[in-house]
Amino acid sequence: MILYPAIDIRDGRAVRLIQGDYDRETIFDNDPVEAALRWVDGGAEALHVVDLDGARSGVPTNLDHVRRICAVAEVPVQVGGGLRSADAVDEVLEAGADRAILGTAALADPALIDALTSEHGERIVVSADSRAGRVAVEGWERESAVSSSELIAMLAERGARSFVYTPVEVDGTLEGPGLEGVTGVCEAAARVGGELVYSGGVGSIAHLRTLAGLGLPALRGVIVGRALYEERFTVAEGREALR
Q1: How far apart are CA 38 and CA 29, in angstroms?
Q2: Cα separation, 101 vs 140, whole angstroms
Q3: For position 11, which CATH number holds?
Q4: What is the total count of domains within the chain?
Q5: Nearest partner of 55 among 102, 19, 99, judged by Cα
Q6: Which residues form the catalytic set?
Q7: pLDDT tens digit string along 116-173?
Q8: Distance of alpha carbon 207 from alpha carbon 104, whole angstroms
Q9: 80 contacts: CB under 8 Å, gap ≥ 6
Q10: Can you give the residue range of the structural domain that contains 77?
Q11: With 0-12 CB in 10 A as exposed, 13-18 as middle and 19+ as buried, what is 197?
C-alpha cells in the first residue's frame, strides 16, 4: 500500500480541518509547496492535494499552488476539490496532476464519469466520502441519499475503477480509522475490480498497521494528514507500517 501525505489548501496555505468543519482549521504551512517538499524529502511516493476553497465554491481555486506543487514534487500527485466539469478536470491535469478526484460531480452528473473515464482512464478517481453512512458532497457540507458502496457500484458501471473514501466523522480526529466503513467500501470496490485509497482518523503507526492487517485486496493506499504534520510519525515510518 502507498502512503499519501495530504496537503489541503485553503486561502493559499496548507491546513487541516477537523471532521470537515471549515471553522475548525489549523494552519501548518503558509506555503503548501513547503509541505510538499517536506513529504517528498521524507520519502513520500505520492501526494494527495485537496483544494478546499474549490470544494466549497465548486470551481478550482488554487490551481497556481497545484501547478507549483506538481512542478517540484517529482512524485505522482492526485488532486481534488471543485472538479465538477470536464474543463476543470482538464485544467488540473494540465497543471501537472497525475490523477483528478471527483466528488460532487460524480453523484450529480454520473454521465460525466462516462466521458472522463473514456478520455483519461485510470487518471480519474471518484471520491465516495461519507457522513453518517451517506455520501457527503459540496465540500462535505451536504449529505446525499446514497451510500458510499452504492456510489461505487453505480459509477463502476460508467468506467470508474479508482476510489477514495473518507468517513467524515473521524477525519482529522487522530482517534483511529473507521474500520467498519472501510471494510464495506473495499468489498464494494473489489466486486467491480476496483481499488480504493482510505483517509480519515489515522493518528498513529498502530492505526496504519491495523489498516494493513485487514487484508483487503482492494485497499491500495492510505492518506495521512494531521498525524504527519504533528510529527506523530514520519513518512518513512508510515510507509514501513503499511508494508
Answers
A1: 11
A2: 14
A3: 3.20.20.70
A4: 1
A5: 102
A6: 8, 129
A7: 999 999 999 999 988 888 887 776 677 787 899 999 999 999 999 999 999 999 999 9
A8: 28
A9: 49, 50, 51, 55, 100, 101, 102, 103, 125, 127, 164
A10: 2-242
A11: buried
